[in-house]
Amino acid sequence: MQSTSIPKAWEGVLGAASFIPVTSIKAIERYRNAEWSKGLSIHEAFEMVYIKSGEGQFEIGSQSVTVGSNDIVIIKPHQHHKLEVTSDGGCDFIVLYFKFMNQSNLAMSETSIEDFINFVSGRDSGAFIKLKVSQKNDIIILLNRILKEKASDQLGSELLDYLMLMELFVLISRALKAEWENSIKNKSPKIKELMQSAIQFVHNNYEREISITDIAKYVFLSPSYFTRAFKEDTGLSPMQYLLNIRIKRACELLDETDMKVGEIAHSVGFSNQQRFNDMFKKQVNMTPMQYRNSSKNIHN
Questions:
Q1: Which of 18, 195, 204, 221 has the greatest CB tally within 10 Å of its CB?
Q2: Which residue ranges make up each domain of the chain?
Q3: Which PANTHER family match (predicted)?
């Protein structure tokens, strides 16, 4: 890939990540009639196909996938695949190939690509991912912008290409997360399994400054959906559950050690001792020192 001069303001943005998305081949737009079929192919890059109109049949690995208008299929690297147009009116589609590039040595990274797909899907996605979107969906609007920008070859196109691809992956991850949430609705065993994973995450990380967003990300759910599911499962909000764990551990340390109150506050995840004192008193109905003194009196 050729080097490009970028504005100073964006150097930090592009330098923050170890791997950045790049298109390895130009985005292309195709129209094929009902008699057309694409022979067996295999690529080192991701292949993203958006069906603008018409219908077709993909063979990806050992799976057969029917596609129609406003479907998006993302095929992983090194997967044998072919496409056959099945609608009488033909098929109109956009194809985009992309990889992730290691900024330290400009090498293409296969590991990062695999991690990306598994992360954004929140599950083992197999050889491909399929999404159904509307014609006015932000992903489709952005795909058309990418196509237009690649055809223009204007000043700053390469930088804009980076930024639009980053935006594209954010939008795809949101769509996949929404699909994942819809797929587990009314599946009580799966929801319970996810909530147990979240609870374990809280127990393993309560001493850190973690948020609802951090816990929700761990189980691949949006914060709003996760909060509702967690409360339905435990009867408590995620933050109340986290607070209970922290206060319980603080009580143990006040009972069993001579640590200072400030040290205990930090060890159970509070960056501010005054907030710890306030939360402790609200939960236990006494200050940390009052609790320690009362505990000593009981033991004596």
A1: 221
A2: 8-184, 187-300
A3: ARAC-FAMILY TRANSCRIPTIONAL REGULATOR (PTHR43280), HTH-TYPE TRANSCRIPTIONAL REGULATOR EXSA (PTHR43280:SF2)
Note whether 51 and 68 are within 8 A (CB): yes
Q: At what angle do helices 273-284 and 238-256 cross, to 10 degrees?
A: 90
CA distances from 237 to 165, 191, 223 (A): 36, 16, 11
186's torsion region: left (phi>0), alpha (psi -120 to 50) or beta?
Answer: left
- Cα end-to-end span (Å), the chain: 74
Cα–Cα distance list, 137 to 34, 58, 71, 198, 283 (Å): 27, 23, 11, 31, 46
Record: fold of 187-300: Arc Repressor Mutant, subunit A (1.10.10)
CA distance 186 to 109: 38
Express each pLDDT in 115-174 by its tens digit: 444 544 444 456 787 887 776 688 888 888 877 877 777 777 777 877 887 788 778 777
| pTM score above 0.85 | no
